[in-house]
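Severity: low
Component: inverse-folding endpoint
Summary: output formatting inconsistent between runs
Steps to reproduce: submit the following structure tokens with default settings.
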């Protein structure tokens, strides 16, 4: 469902730099993030936005990419119960709220080289009617590092398995 497309562009062979814009429209965020969080995370809502890409030789750089879910949705995180390990009552309540979090808007940002230090960010706000008297929470999380390492930390076994399966399927018998 939804569309992922490139804006019209001209690729100039031998140019020091080429620019391409990836456009995302009406893509379910749950499908987009499928496999991350080892099945402990589900998110509803429809993604819209652009990811500008600059190609310089073999270097690929994302420049201020931004995807958004403007109409809200629900985040359900069923991870390990860490509330006992968190001494701050408000932080523990925030983690509890993520078990069934009704959010108003969600923003994903990506900026940096695909083969180097990249910055990924997510912001969302909303509430869980069963937590802290339905008080609003605002989350803002930024992660910086190599993209493959970030993806691996979000789903350590699933990503490696998909890569190995992909390589295996592309091999031809001798």
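Observed output (run 2 of 3):
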């Amino acid at each position: 469902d939804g569309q992922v497309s490139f804006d019209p562009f001209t690729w100039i062979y031998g140019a020091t730099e080429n620019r391409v814009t990836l456009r995302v429209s009406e893509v379910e965020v749950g499908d987009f993030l499928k496999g991350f969080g080892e099945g402990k995370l589900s998110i509803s809502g429809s993604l819209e936005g652009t990811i500008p890409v600059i190609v310089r030789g073999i270097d690929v750089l994302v420049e201020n990419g931004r995807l958004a879910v403007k109409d809200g949705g629900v985040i359900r995180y069923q991870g390990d119960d860490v509330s006992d390990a968190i001494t701050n009552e408000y932080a523990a309540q925030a983690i509890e709220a993520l078990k069934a979090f009704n959010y108003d808007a969600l923003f994903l940002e990506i900026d940096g080289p695909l083969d180097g230090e990249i910055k990924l960010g997510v912001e969302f706000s909303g509430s869980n009617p069963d937590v802290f008297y339905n008080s609003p929470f605002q989350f803002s999380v930024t992660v910086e590092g190599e993209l493959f390492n970030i993806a691996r930390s979000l789903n350590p076994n699933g990503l490696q398995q998909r890569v190995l399966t992909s390589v295996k399927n592309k091999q031809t018998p001798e």
